[in-house]
Structures are given as structure tokens and as C-alpha cells.
Known about the structure:
globular
Amino acid sequence: MNRYDQTPVLQARGLVKRYGRVTAIDDTDFDLYAGEILAVIGDNGAGKSSLIKALSGAVSPDAGEIFVDGKPTTFNNPLDARSQGIETVYQNLAVSPALNIADNLYLGREIRKPGILGSVFRMLDKKKMHEAARHKMSDLGLLTIQNIGQTVETLSGGQRQGVAVARSAMFGSRVVIMDEPTAALGVKESRRVLGLIRQVRDKGLPVVLISHNMPHVFEVADRIHIHRLGKRIAVISPKTHSMSDAVAIMTGAMDPNQPGSLQD
């Protein structure tokens, strides 16, 4: 069965978000299907950040509905989204540089020791967390990080991004959202992060990629959601549309219903 014939993993209909007189999200829709990388692009001020915040629980929409696996739901905060398997990797990473890799992976979700040691004395099961962290980092191909106990501040930018991606992959059971994951990274580290995004997708988690880097978008995305003036105005495929097409649609220079330049 074609994945696009199935019920979307994450879906929105008619979302609206206003900030005073400014309408950031204007009756927009969204669809993310299993097994895909969906890129979300748009010019500055297009409303894509507000859309992603609504889908991750960071803001509450004023109108519209959000569906997870076809069931209507409401996110009052990011913890609500997390509880439904939606994890977000923000541009600023939200990692704690002074903590080690394992502690960052389990930050806010620490595993306590069994029995009275955990329930009464609230002792953490460091060994279990370190073993699970090492397994996940290895599973994602981050073998250059040998010591799972080293502090995040000693890692390169790409490795720090890897820690954030690994954390989302550990706890995201349905969706991983990545906000500008290659921003401020060098060419080599960007390549590694793009590889991680593919690996997360290949392991069964659909990925939402928000990016201004068009070559990266066209390299990894299965579909591209184009946002303009608070609305989804088109969803295109890198197989049928070029980067020039995407930019033209994004800026209003091309009719979103016009066939892509790569179509036969």
C-alpha cells in the first residue's frame, strides 16, 4: 500500500494562531505520513515556526484541530506532545553542556534504581542509563563518541547535534521534529547530521525537517511542505520540482498548481 493512502501519523486541519492583530497561522493544514522526511520551508515570517510550535505543544492554536494517528488531540504544552511520542530538536539544541552525554539523553526522564533505593532514596540507575545511551549512540552510527560519560561541552557542534537527535530518537515513538538541524555547522558535520536524519527515518520514525538550506532539503526530503503568509500553499516532491520551482512558489512568483519543471 502507498504510504500516502494511509492515515497520517500527524495531521492538522484549519489551524489558526493570532498574536494580537498578527495572524501567524492562517487556516492551514498539515500532513505527515509514516516513513517519510517532510521538509517545511518558507520565507521569514511565513508562519512555519508557529506551525511547528503548535504541532509540538509549544503554543496553543486559537482554532483548528490536530490529529495523531487519526485521533483528535490537544497539546497544552510540550509535555503533552512528548507523551504522545512527538519529540522536537530545536535549533539551540537545548542540551546542557556541563552534563555528560548519558545525563543529557535522560534529562528530565531519569531512570531510578529499583526498589527502595529508587522509590524512597530517589537514587538514579546510572549504569542502566549509560548502557542504554551507549546503545542508542552506536545504533545511530555515532561511534566517534567513545566515552558516554564525557561532558557535552567537549563535543563538536555536529556531535552535540547528534546527542540531541539521539535523545529525540530514544523517546520519540511517533514523530521527530528537527528545527534547522544543520544551522551553524560546517560541511562535514552537516553531512553527518543529514545522515542521522535519514537513519532516524529508516528506523521507522517520520521526520519533520524545518530548514532554510535548500540543497539539504532537496537532498533528504521525500516531500516538501511550502508555507507562505501563514498557509500551506503547496506540497511538492523533489522528483517533480526543482529548487528554483520551490523558491518561486515560496515567494509567489510561480503558481503552486503549475506542474514542476522536472515533470515529464
